[in-house]
Design a protein that fits this description.
Layout: E1 5-8, H1 15-19, E2 22-26, E3 32-36, E4 47-54, E5 57-72, E6 75-78, E7 81-83, E8 88-90, E9 95-101, E10 103-110, E11 113-121, E12 127-135, E13 141-153, E14 165-170, E15 173-178, E16 186-190, E17 194-197, E18 212-216, H2 219-223, E19 230-233, E20 236-242, E21 247-255, H3 264-282, H4 287-297, E22 300-303, E23 308-311, E24 314-315, H5 322-334, H6 339-350, H7 376-390, H8 394-416, E25 418-419, E26 423-425, E27 431-432, E28 446-447, E29 450-451, E30 458-459, H9 460-480, H10 487-502, E31 503-504, E32 509-510, E33 513-514, H11 527-530, H12 538-551, E34 558-559, H13 576-582, E35 588-589, H14 593-603, H15 608-624, E36 636-637, E37 650-651, H16 652-665
Antiparallel strand pairs: 1-9, 2-3, 3-4, 4-5, 5-6, 5-13, 7-8, 9-10, 10-11, 11-12, 12-21, 13-20, 14-15, 15-16, 16-21, 17-20, 18-19, 22-23, 24-37, 25-26, 26-27, 28-29, 30-33, 31-32, 34-35, 35-36
């Protein structure tokens, strides 16, 4: 795989084809920019400035995009590409190539004029810069930039009547104040050119109002059930005159900051340099790994409420989820050698442990976190354990002892008795969880009163995690000379109970849940093999891997249910209700490739053939990272023919687990 991604016209022969390919870049505080290779919006989340008003949440669309027009002696060329209800603008027809190399670059040609447009963010700030370089031909031209503004929650649409702003122009600066938030100032700067009030443009029946970009249609949202349209505010345009044969560079910046002390080109250079520094720090001499390091960076963001780093679960809509954070943790921050960020993430979540529970998620609002999860707390032990394995210095152990250890004890005490959401330990030492409508494992969909994947009882991965947590606590309490709460004795009891009760002799693998007699073949059993402390003998581990490969493996991950099961859903498509019914009933999950490859290599003793096979399974993700969201790995795919990205276009644990197993198998 090349360091940069380059696409020619064969990738966007139609606007529909161009809209299937997207890009995104983050700003380190939960905000981001994203759009399509064609240059338009295909989902409600697309925009050049999605700002996190309360980092990393409360994300609002501020600048949708900039549209460009070229006028050469009266010959007008519209470079904008966008679908509408009954028509489309097809500016992608002037696009010669698209390049993504840490930031997106659009390369257009109009007659004998070459135009380069790039978008970058000011890291740590709700600021986006759009830079232009024009190599003009033999005639003078006028270049027009039309910014599309908005003020709405990302992932929603808005009526034109609700797009109301106060506006002021000061020299090269346009200031907009949304009527719905008088405390917010949207500043738009241009390094060159003149503002022109679009309300002065004569209207016609075909174009009744130039102050709005109306009735945008979102292709991808439409096929998942959204039948509406969207609107944007376009009060001014910027006009720049360029002489014949002139080469001209200029930029526009949109920001929520009070002042900007950098040029657009400086913002771009700083953004790219920072990414290169992260690649050097990670220390891989492999383009696949380097691109994963780039992808990982977008998920690691600042949380204002703790003043520390956290991990966003996925783009474009997820916030920080405890379970997702801990599963993605090793790949995103340890394999990339971002150990300071790792400490901050562990400490950030420690501040919110409540009744022994790590938060399930932090909502996208100024509200308290939700705690409806049994596994986030157990994955927290794994994150701590792996942190120490990667670092292992005395100061690292001291950090865990002083900041984290008491929280681990609190989790243990809560789980070994009983805590919220019917989570607790039975007499056999195993953990039970969930009741009624509560969904507390990662297979957590509920549609009204329909519990799609009821896993109440004793789920297999929860008890594998519980056993590993006990083993970890025994190691830590010896290291720190802490009170002996009989972790070792309990772990032996758990191991014995697990082996007696979870083995399914008929199917030669593990029950998914016991006490509820769920013998469906699901991927959750793989964590009983892949976690550091083995709870089963090698022969049973091999049989689990064989069953998983036969029933669940699906190129870009593992199915959530055997394709032979009568309840198997082969497609994740359509309105939300239909998608929810398929979410954990056959849909392929990218992150599950991690425990599968680890398990496969483990049962084959990491021999040469196993490593070759593992590398083959990973190599297909290089192709996927050229598709869907460029340089990302999607959350999910269909259960059959897992080719099209579904769900979040780039998911933290998908990227994290691919990078983790890459690191693992390349040790051999």
């Amino acid at each position: 795989m090349e360091k940069k991604y380059s696409y020619g016209r064969g990738s966007f022969k139609t606007i529909e084809a161009g809209n299937e390919l997207s890009w995104m870049i983050g700003n380190g505080i939960g905000g981001y920019a994203n759009s399509t290779v064609a240059g338009g919006s295909a989902i409600m989340h697309h925009g050049y400035l999605i700002a996190a008003l309360n980092p990393p949440v409360n994300r609002f669309l501020i600048l949708t995009k900039t549209q460009e027009e070229v006028d050469i002696n009266g010959r007008r060329y519209d470079l904008s590409s966008q679908q509408y209800i009954k028509t489309s603008k097809n500016g992608h027809e002037y696009l010669e190539k698209f390049i993504f190399d840490s930031i997106p670059e659009y390369h257009y040609r109009v007659e004998d004029v070459k135009i380069k447009k790039s978008i970058s963010m000011d890291y740590g700030h709700n600021t986006v810069a759009i830079c232009y370089e024009i190599q003009n031909g033999i005639e003078d031209l006028n270049f027009k930039i039309i910014p599309l503004f908005n003020y709405r929650l990302s992932g929603e649409s808005i009526e034109k009547s609700n797009l109301r702003f106060d506006k002021v122009i000061e020299n090269n600066k346009l200031i907009l104040t949304p009527e719905k938030n008088k405390e917010l100032k949207i500043s738009f700067y241009t390094s060159q050119g003149d503002y022109y009030d679009r309300s002065l443009i004569p209207t016609t029946m075909a174009t009744p109002n130039y102050l709005f970009e109306e009735n945008q249609y979102y292709m991808i949202d439409n096929r998942t059930g959204f039948l509406g349209v969207d609107n944007h505010y376009t009060p001014y345009e910027v006009n720049i005159n360029i002489k014949a044969k002139e080469i001209k560079k200029f930029y526009v910046i949109c920001t929520l900051e009070d002042e900007i002390n950098k040029t657009g080109f400086e913002i771009e250079k700083k953004y790219k340099n920072r990414i290169n520094t992260l690649i050097e720090k990670a220390g891989y001499n492999d383009n696949f790994a380097n691109n994963l390091v780039k992808a990982a960076d977008h998920f690691i963001v600042y949380r204002k409420s703790t003043g520390l780093k956290t991990i966003l679960a996925g783009y474009p809509w997820f916030t920080d989820w405890g379970r997702d954070t801990m599963i993605a943790f090793e790949g995103l921050v340890l394999c990339t050698k971002r150990f300071e960020d790792a400490r901050e993430i562990l400490e950030s979540f420690s501040k919110y442990v409540k009744n022994g529970l790590v938060p399930n998620l932090f909502p996208d609002a100024n509200t308290e976190p939700l705690y409806n999860t049994v596994d986030a707390s157990l994955w927290y032990f794994q994150a701590v354990y792996k942190y120490l394995k990667y670092t292992g210095n005395e100061e690292d152990y001291k950090f865990i002892e002083e900041k984290i250890y008491d929280k681990l004890v609190e989790i243990f005490k809560s789980y070994s008795s009983k805590t919220d959401f019917s989570i607790g330990m039975d007499e056999d030492g195993l953990i039970f969880a969930g009741s009624g409508l509560d969904q507390v494992t990662w297979m957590d969909v509920r549609v009204g009163d329909i519990v799609v994947t009821p896993r109440h009882g004793k789920p297999v991965e929860i008890n594998a995690l519980w056993y590993n947590a006990l083993c970890i606590m025994e190691e830590l309490r010896i290291r720190f000379n802490k009170e002996n709460l009989y972790y070792k004795e309990l772990s032996l009891k758990v191991k014995d109970s697990f082996n007696k009760k979870f083995w399914n002799k008929d199917k030669q693998c593990l029950f998914d849940v016991i006490d509820e007699d769920d013998d469906k073949i699901r991927p959750n059993q793989l964590w009983a093999v892949s976690l550091p402390f083995s709870i089963l003998d090698r022969e049973k581990e091999k049989q689990i891997v064989d069953a998983s490969y036969k029933h669940l493996y699906s190129t870009y991950g593992l199915r959530s249910l055997s394709f032979m099961d009568k309840e198997f859903k082969d497609k994740y498509i359509g309105e939300l209700f239909k998608r929810d019914l398929a979410y954990h009933m056959g849909t392929t999950w990218g992150f599950l490739i991690g425990p599968f490859i680890t398990s496969y290599c483990k049962v084959n003793n990491y021999d040469e053939k196993a490593i070759i096979k593992a590398k083959e399974m990973l190599s297909v993700f290089e192709d996927h990272m050229r598709d869907g969201c460029i340089n990302g790995i999607a959350e999910i795919f269909d259960g059959e023919f897992s080719s099209t990205s579904r769900g979040c276009y780039s998911q933290a644990w998908s990227v994290g687990e691919v990078l983790r197993v890459y690191c693992d198998i390349n040790k051999y």
